[in-house]
């Protein structure tokens, strides 16, 4: 279904443009002109975040932190298999997809742990990446935005695990 | 961000000095490489979607989307310019549809307009970043596809809990933004030139 949304959406736009006699080529170029500046402006912020995140993962510190947090997570009803996934989720999109696939493989795609993991990943975002990208170039002090997003994401994680027991 | 960055960087490096000193620089560099690859990928994504957006602005579709979200956006982002509010509407629409790549350039532009020359996030910027960072997508297409690949008998059965969880997460985030909005200077100002 989602495979159709994008191409259909773009095609419909061009069609409406043509019907309304919009010079679609000029309009497209005018919009795309901004792309380079945008990528250039965001790059240093992205580099800083991704270097830090990669160090965190490669050093093994993320695994260590996951182990340390495990008892707390357990008390909140989060399965032990998901601790590393939850630690990595706000930092790395590709990393969390990789860990999700790992949970599917070890626990079976229809197990409780796998369903909970799916809901956790599906209902959250890469918080640090979004913050760095959106604030890139303009925001120096986030005024709690990152802390709020992390807290809400964690609350969502606990709720996801709970929901998967009933639904 | 400064504190988070320092802790991540320092703790990881300090830990690596004990376990794997040789791998530290390599890990940092491969992180930077990720940023380069991602930036080039994003450049392509921006070119496509900002181009499409250019067409949308001229053919009236952008206006239709903005009007759809107008009642909510007008209240939550009261005092921002109409141009900014329209960008926010389009960003949310793209997020709902699960086209995160289209949402990003719109969101960056919206933040830029809301901030002006200010480098301290305003209440509106905080609210906007939180909503985006809470992942308000309504169709977890990637996850469902992954589960199907992994051999699930009913891959789509996570749809309902995912939607509920997303909405709860976003609601908690938004409520917290309002509770802490006193931390943002001039939060009631909102009306920038």
Describe the structure.
Chain A has 167 residues and is mainly alpha-helical. Chain A has 2 domains: 33 residues, no CATH class; 131 residues, no CATH class. Chain A has 9 helices and no strands. In chain A, helix 3 packs antiparallel against helix 8, helix 6 packs antiparallel against helix 7 and helix 7 runs antiparallel to helix 9. Chain B has 193 residues and is mainly alpha-helical. Chain B has one domain. The chains are: A mainly alpha (167), B mainly alpha (193). At the A-B interface, helix 1, helix 2, helix 3, helix 6 and helix 7 of A face helix 1, helix 2, helix 5, helix 6 and helix 7 of B.
Structural class of chain B: mainly alpha
Biggest sheet of chain A: strands, sense, closure?
none
N- to C-terminal distance of chain A: 23 Å
Main structural class of chain A: mainly alpha
In sequence order, what are the helices and strands of chain A, one letter per element? HHHHHHHHH
| Total number of strands of chain A | 0
Order of helix and strand elements from N to C terminus of chain B: HHHHHHHH
Helix content of chain A: over 70%
**Whole-number count of domains of chain B:** 1
Domain module count of chain A:
2
Largest sheet of chain B: none
Number of helices of chain A: 9
Radius of gyration of chain B, rounded? 20 Å
Percent of residues of chain A in beta strands? under 5%
The rough form of chain A would be described as globular
């Amino acid at each position: 279904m989602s495979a159709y949304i994008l191409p259909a959406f773009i095609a419909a736009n061009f069609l409406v443009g043509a019907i309304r006699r919009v010079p679609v080529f000029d309009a497209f170029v005018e919009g795309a002109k901004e792309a380079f500046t945008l990528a250039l402006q965001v790059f240093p912020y992205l580099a800083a975040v991704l270097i830090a995140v990669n160090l965190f993962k490669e050093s093994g510190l993320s695994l260590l932190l996951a182990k340390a947090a495990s008892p707390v997570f357990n008390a909140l009803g989060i399965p032990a298999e998901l601790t590393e996934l939850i630690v990595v989720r706000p930092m790395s999109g590709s990393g969390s997809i990789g860990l999700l696939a790992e949970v599917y493989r070890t626990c079976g795609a229809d197990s409780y742990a796998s369903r909970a993991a799916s809901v956790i990943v599906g209902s959250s975002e890469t918080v640090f990446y979004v913050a760095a990208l959106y604030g890139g170039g303009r925001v120096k002090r986030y005024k709690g935005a990152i802390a709020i997003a992390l807290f809400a994401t964690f609350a969502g994680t606990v709720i996801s695990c709970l929901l998967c027991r009933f639904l | 961000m400064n504190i988070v960055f320092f802790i991540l960087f320092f703790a990881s490096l300090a830990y690596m000095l004990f376990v794997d000193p040789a791998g530290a620089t390599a890990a940092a560099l491969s992180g930077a490489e990720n940023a380069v690859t991602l930036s080039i990928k994003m450049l392509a994504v921006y070119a496509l979607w900002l181009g499409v957006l250019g067409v949308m602005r001229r053919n009236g579709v952008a206006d239709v989307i903005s009007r759809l979200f107008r009642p909510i956006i007008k209240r939550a982002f009261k005092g921002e310019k109409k141009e900014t509010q329209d960008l926010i509407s389009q960003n949310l629409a793209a997020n709902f549809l699960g086209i995160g790549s289209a949402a990003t350039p719109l969101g960056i532009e919206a933040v830029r307009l809301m901030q002006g020359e200010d480098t301290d996030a305003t209440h509106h910027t905080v609210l906007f970043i939180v909503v985006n960072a809470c992942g308000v997508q309504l169709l977890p297409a990637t996850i469902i596809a992954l589960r199907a690949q992994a051999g699930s008998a009913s891959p789509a059965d996570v749809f309902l809990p995912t939607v509920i969880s997303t909405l709860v997460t976003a609601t908690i985030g938004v409520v917290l933004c309002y509770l802490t909005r006193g931390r943002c200077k001039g939060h009631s100002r909102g009306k920038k030139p």
